[in-house]
Amino acid sequence: MKSNNPKLGTLAVWAGEKAPFWEGSTQVPVVHSVSFGYSNMDDWLSVGKGQKAGHIYSRNTNPTVQAFEEKICLMEGAEKATSFASGMAAISNTLFTLLSPGDRIVSIKDSYGGTSKLFIEFLPRFKIRVDLCDTTDQSAIERSVAAGCKLLYLESPTNPTLKIVDIARLTSVAHDIGALVVVDNTFATPILQKPLNLGADLVLHSATKFLGGHADALGGVVCGRLDLIDKIYHHREITGAALDPMAAYLILRGMKTLHLRILHQSESALLIARHLENHQAIDQVFYPGLESHPQHGIARHQMTAFGGVLSFKIKGDFDAVRNVLPRLKYAHRAANLGAVETIVGPPATTSHVECTEGERRAMGIPESLVRYSVGIEDTEDLIADLDQALEQAC
Questions:
Q1: 38 tagged catalytic
Q2: Which residues contact 234 (CB under 8 A, 6 or more apart)?
Q3: CA–CA separation, 390 and 314 (whole Å)
Q4: Whose CB among 16, 48, 132, 360 lies 3.0–4.6 Å from 70's, allowing a Cys bridge?
């Protein structure tokens, strides 16, 4: 490092990359080896016991994967990080590590669809009680936490309705009763929001999204307190949801431009949201950067910008979505977000595809909602593209 206090753009490029590497290469090598050999038994034992740096088996640790973990750890300001094969692997392993039968967890109704399934289907099978609160009612969340819980799980901004929760306020209440706080930071990334600085114990990412940024690698990661990460790592090394070295390399490569991408995407998303807010074919726009957003003040306080994802409700029912989306020229109709290309889709086929229409309705997700993940294209082209597609809905 050239500075004792490098900024996030510099960390995105250099953190975790201790060059020179093998044969003097300047890039982190992709180490595909399953195992790592030792000619000296004492060295092998020392590495196996954690007394000496090194690797034994790639389900446990791997040099390429370790470089990714170190990069995101430094960017989030965490003590340690451990990675997974996907974002949902990171979420599920974290919850099943920290929770036991009889425990109670408090969360919000607007979390990602896969996370919601854990709350309403999987955790109750293990006698873990879950209270899902109205995301916009901070007082109700506080009361539920104060009633006693082991863990508070938050997501901000939420997927796909872009609601905001006050992380610092809710974390303080949780810590007053000794509860842990876990925050999904996928939408904001460490460029825009630092949940650990706001008091959270752990921060999660689907690295598949903005961190990787190119829609070509699955991955997940959790960062935070050393003692908690060590427990989660042990659970992951035994259950086996390890991040593949090639995926780790692709995410590492993508993260080098994270700072540039997320700032441009945030700027574009705000301009697009403001444009759509006045469009005759749109009922409502959901984006925390809008002054009309109910939690805009909280977002301004805990974020440096408002992210590259917005959603909007087209006038009409799902037929309106069917008519408009295929007409977009500069957007993949796909179940992903956070890539260099714009990606669009309704929750019924993206974030909440696992949920029934009734479950989505209970979460406040209308069938005519469209999630729009802004890419790095020219903003003017994206606005013009939306306008021509929405003409059919007017």
A1: no
A2: 97
A3: 9
A4: 16
- 184 labelled catalytic: yes
266 Cβ partners below 8 Å, 6+ apart?
A: 192, 289, 305, 306, 307, 308
| 129 noted as active-site residue | no
Out of 110, 166, 184, 201, pick the active-site residue: 184
Q: Which of 71, 80, 112, 236 is catalytic?
A: 112
Q: Is 223 within a domain?
A: yes
**Residue of 57, 59, 134, 300 marked catalytic:** 59
- Both 135 and 283 in one domain: the answer is no
Whether the model pTM is above 0.90: yes
Q: What is the domain extent for residue 43?
A: 8-255
- What number of CA atoms fall less than 13 Å from residue 43's CA on the CB side? 9
Among residues 255, 284, 308, which one ends one of the domains?
255
The answer to whether residues 145 and 272 belong to one domain is no
Q: Find how far residue 25's CA is from the centre of its chain.
A: 31
pLDDT for 138 equals: 96
Q: Are residues 17 and 121 in the same domain?
A: yes
- Dihedral of the CA atoms 265, 270, 274, 280 (nearest 10)? 40
pLDDT tens digits, residue range 189-203?
999 999 999 999 999
Q: CA-CA distance, 1 to 268, in Å (whole number)?
A: 32
Least confident of 36-40, 60-64, 330-334, 367-371: 367-371
Regarding whether 232 and 275 lie in a shared domain, the answer is no
Question: Residue 269: left if φ>0, alpha if ψ -120 to 50, beta else—which one?
Answer: alpha
Give the CA dihedral 276, 280, 286, 290, nearest 10 degrees.
Answer: 60
- Of the residues 80, 150, 209, 261, only one is catalytic, namely 209
209 included as an active-site residue: yes
Look up the CATH number of the domain holding residue 59: 3.40.640.10
Contact 370, 358 (CB under 8 A): no
Alpha-carbon gap, residue 336 to 216, rounded angstroms:
11
